[in-house]
Amino acid sequence: MAISPTGVRPEPGSFRDPANRVFHLGDEVLRGLDARAAEDWRALAGADFFTTLLAEGKVCGTEAVDPTRVPGAQAWAAVLRHERIPFVSHPYEWSFGMLRDAALRHLEILRAAIPAGFTTKDGSAYNLQWRGTDPVFIDVGSFEPLRDGEPWAGYRQFCQTMLYPLLLTAHLGVDFQPWLRSRVDGIEADQLRPLFRGVRRLLPGVPTHVHLHGAMQSRNAAATTTDVRAQLRAAGYSRELALATVRGIEKLVRRLDRRTTPTHWVDYQRTCGYTAQDRAGKERFVTAALTDGARPRLVLDLGANDGRYSRLAAGHADQVVAVEQDPVVVDTLYRELRAEGERRILPLVMDLADPSPGGGWRGVERASFADRAAADVVLALAVVHHLAIGRNVPLPDVVSWLADLCAPGARIVVEFVHPEDPMARRLLANKPDGIFPDYRRAEFERHLATRARITHREELPSGTRTLYTAVVGG
Prior knowledge:
The protein is of the alpha/beta class. The chain is built from 18 helices and 16 strands.
């Protein structure tokens, strides 16, 4: 992210709407508005529905600030300051339940806005972020006055980044995450239509939002937005019809759910092979590492599985990001955390051997996982052997990656599973003999010491696993 001589850092993901732009100044998140957007903001700020959404935390905290105190703000008619979201995530890192709840939050906001004479000009899943398991709408610049006879401008984006991915998983059992990751603008109707032929054409939401929508897009491909709006006004499209449409989509989304297919990792606590003594010792060690020093602002729990250690970390940190590869496991964890009212843990779907890269325009519009991390504590419990043996990642590269996810002076809490451990032996059994001669505890310690200072070391009672706490750069 380029920094101007004034210290202002433009947000790389904010450039598609020329009427407003997000930028950073120190720890502040600011938004500049042009004259038209500033006028819309003043009307929005005085609307009862908007102040209610702010008070309920459904829209990110926003207030106008004096532009004269912001370097370079003379280019804008008004400047807003937003609350800072604890950790920015992308929709392709969310579970099914997360995407569905984000979609419902967007529709809830739209349903409140329309009767008050407002709409949102965007429908992108990227307009929402998370406070733990609570979705929050962040694109305040998307609100604009509603003009009678005009459809919801964000409908196509909503379908491509929210509804279509949900249909893909709910109806076909296909994980949507790889589809969204490959296309920053989401899934096109023409990509889905071949998958929903025959009796699948009649599945809930498919006839209207996939086939009819796709056909209308093709029919109006040469028409301008002005032409389409004129046609809808002539047909009597009204505010009441717009609201009914939103309610219909909301009803559909609420009905959608993922297929409950058990996976290998769902019952991890029973199958992982830890003894009660090992588990108790591990929890004591992790707790000590979390409380040894300043309270962590951000903890990354890599390979979080059912969230056992994420919950432990949440008692000693401001925010925990629980990363797990299995979408079903993450979705189960998310639903449990949301039911519990836990707001300090954000579960994410991600393959640690293939973490989210930078994406979108010039590869920086959507920041990579590493660029977003800067954690105060990284928990890597029972992860190293899966990367080094299961995925053939060289041991020094695993250590370097863990260190790169840390802020300066951060702590790594890492578990090394010895080659003779049953889990490691199971992985090694599927590999050619002698392929991992360097996978040894002494080698791991040597590599860890090149990037961090080992402060604590403890062997678990089983004798085949060792825990370490190391300070990066120490």
